[in-house]
Write a structure and sequence with these properties.
48% of the residues lie in helices and 16% in strands. The protein is an alpha/beta fold. The strands form four sheets. A five-stranded parallel β-sheet has the order 2-5-8-1-9.
């Protein structure tokens, strides 16, 4: 029953966000794998609409935080407010205390704000003064970055990048999809019903997560998954090009993320077992933000996607 509701949710999201099936699947995989997601793409590609539509499709509330250079940590986490009538301080919760949070243009905020968000993402809690406050059990952050404009931005530290289970890259839709977007926009202006859905309940989402974690993975595929991550740390073992391109590889958190996303991808595609394609497809969004490339790679115009492709070509699937 819960799986049917998730399939309905997937259809609903693809009706609301046209031409961005990778974003829809990425959000659902992050939801099922209990992780956070970093999305990079030009403005106007329905990133805000996607997570807002997801909030309509589940029993959860949503809040968007626009990250700017003058943002303070308390603007995200909340702060203690003095109540004159009682003569005491009361904690006023910030926008992070929602089930779904959109951190829009996250790289425009300074390091202090990013570190406050890091604790929330990693520990599922917020500390203000000497008091720690728990975040909701269902908690997902979708952060966005604009690749077109880098002036006045603060690059995310590696420790925070590692907290995102996936990094998705979006591109513009094709002409046919653009035509469908115009038709959808016209319907919404005329207030016509586009799509409706009965929301997934919180307990159903936790039930689905248990099912995903019970998806089977063969021993040789588990070893293959580990070998792919190890290749980022020992690149010279596999090829001279990899040794030249990679300065630092991925942490064990990447191995965990790859396992969880591969299982979620298999389950989302109606299988109770992981196939090599699930691992390979998941490898790109799991690794692209975790690799630190060398100066030589950057000088040659080599990006993380090309390095990951070379890793896939060099690491053999165990028998």
């Amino acid at each position: 029953m819960a799986k049917q509701r998730l399939d309905t949710l997937r259809i609903y999201l693809n009706q609301m966000i046209l031409g961005q099936s990778d974003l829809v699947d990425g959000l659902l995989i992050a939801l099922l794998a209990d992780g956070h997601i970093l999305v990079e793409g030009p403005p106007g590609l329905a990133k805000t609409r996607a997570i807002s539509s997801l909030s309509h499709g589940i029993e959860g509330d949503f809040h968007r935080i626009q990250f700017t250079p003058d943002l303070l940590p308390s603007d995200v986490t909340g702060t203690d407010i003095f109540r004159q009538e009682t003569g005491s301080f009361i904690f006023e919760k910030g926008p992070i205390f929602h089930n779904l949070v959109l951190a829009d243009e996250i790289n425009r905020a300074p390091a202090k704000v990013q570190s406050a968000l890091l604790e929330a993402m990693a520990e599922r809690q917020v500390t203000v003064g000497t008091t720690t406050y728990k975040l909701p059990d269902l908690f997902l952050v979708m952060a966005t970055q604009n690749p077109l404009e880098q002036e006045g931005t603060y690059p995310l530290p590696e420790a925070q990048l590692d907290r995102f289970i996936m990094h998705l890259e979006l591109d513009y839709p094709n002409a046919e999809t653009e035509k469908q977007i115009l038709a959808l926009n016209q319907k919404e202006i005329l207030k016509e019903t586009v799509a409706t859905i009965t929301p997934l309940l919180n307990n159903q989402i936790f039930e689905l997560r248990e099912l995903v974690m019970n998806v089977n993975i063969a021993d040789h595929l588990e070893q293959y998954l580990i070998d792919l991550v190890i290749a980022t740390r020992q690149p010279g073992k596999y090829s001279e090009r990899l040794r030249e391109w990679i300065n630092y590889g991925a942490s064990p958190r990447a191995t965990i993320a790859l396992m969880r996303t591969a299982k979620a991808r298999a389950w989302l595609n109606n299988r109770n077992f992981v196939m090599p394609d699930d691992i390979i497809t998941s490898l790109y969004p799991v690794l692209r933000h975790r690799l630190i490339l060398s100066y030589e790679a950057e000088a040659q115009g080599i990006n993380a996607n090309q390095v990951i492709k070379e890793i896939i070509n060099q690491v053999a699937l165990p028998a």
